[in-house]
Structure to design on (269 residues):
């Protein structure tokens, strides 16, 4: 049965390969990217029409516009794969002082998912890209009050999205499912090549597990769980994810920051 699936960061790497495989299976796929040119190139590799969506996920106003465009293009999304992520960039501190890694890897997927929940059925799934790299999250770093090195910021953002997946499953006990997935370490993605200077491992390892998490029977009752593809099974994430106070601080700060970034109404003269 064909599903409608939205994949962020689908112009290269795991996201692109996942989109290609899902299109080949006959699903209706919406692909997101930051560059219109790369979206055209990605769409050109697929033997079917796909909906192309451009947005810079480091700008939460563009995330809101992306959600509106998705709702204009379709009346439902069966699966949302929050794949887009960043480890290194020439400039990691945004104009408002926030860390690019937290914004793209955590705040943007949180906001996009929240805005799209009205069109995601209870039987749907939200697949959040986690990582084997996880570290306890510092709310001060989330607010941009502490400057972190690349890997530390990335690891904290990835535990953050894993914790949010875990907590969202409790809030939406009747569905949709929230599933955090480490697709595999050091796969041949742009992030790995730029971040570690190595070619990386077979991308199909990551794409196949994302498809399984999105559609497979083995993930039907996996809401709130973390799947570690390095060991090919569900596993406990970093031990900090079992700390209720740590998790509450993440969720409180996440909601606070996204609400603080709400666009302000125009001032009347």
């Amino acid at each position: 049965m064909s599903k409608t699936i939205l994949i962020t960061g689908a112009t290269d790497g795991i996201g692109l390969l996942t989109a290609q495989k899902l299109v080949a299976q006959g699903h209706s796929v919406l692909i997101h990217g930051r560059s219109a040119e790369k979206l055209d190139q990605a769409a050109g590799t697929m033997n079917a029409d796909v909906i192309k969506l451009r947005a810079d996920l480091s700008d939460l106003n563009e995330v809101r516009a992306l959600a509106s465009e998705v709702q204009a293009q379709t009346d439902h999304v069966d699966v949302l794969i929050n794949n887009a992520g960043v480890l290194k960039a020439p400039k990691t501190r945004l104009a408002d002082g926030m860390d690019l890694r937290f914004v793209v890897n955590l705040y943007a997927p949180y906001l996009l998912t929240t805005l799209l929940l009205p069109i995601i059925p209870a039987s749907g799934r939200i697949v959040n890209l986690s990582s084997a790299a996880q570290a306890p999250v510092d709310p001060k770093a989330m607010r941009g009050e502490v400057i972190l090195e690349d890997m530390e910021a990335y690891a904290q953002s990835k535990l953050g999205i894993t914790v949010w997946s875990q907590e969202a499953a409790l809030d939406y006990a009747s569905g949709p499912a929230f599933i955090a997935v480490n697709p595999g370490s050091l796969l041949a993605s742009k992030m790995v090549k730029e971040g570690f200077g190595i070619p990386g491992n077979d991308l199909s390892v990551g794409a196949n597990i994302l498809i399984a998490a999105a559609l497979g029977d083995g993930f039907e009752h996996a809401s709130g769980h973390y799947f570690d593809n390095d060991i090919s099974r569900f596993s406990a994430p970093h031990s900090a994810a079992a700390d209720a106070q740590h998790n509450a601080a993440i969720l409180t700060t996440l909601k606070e920051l996204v609400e603080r970034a709400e666009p302000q109404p125009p001032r009347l003269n």
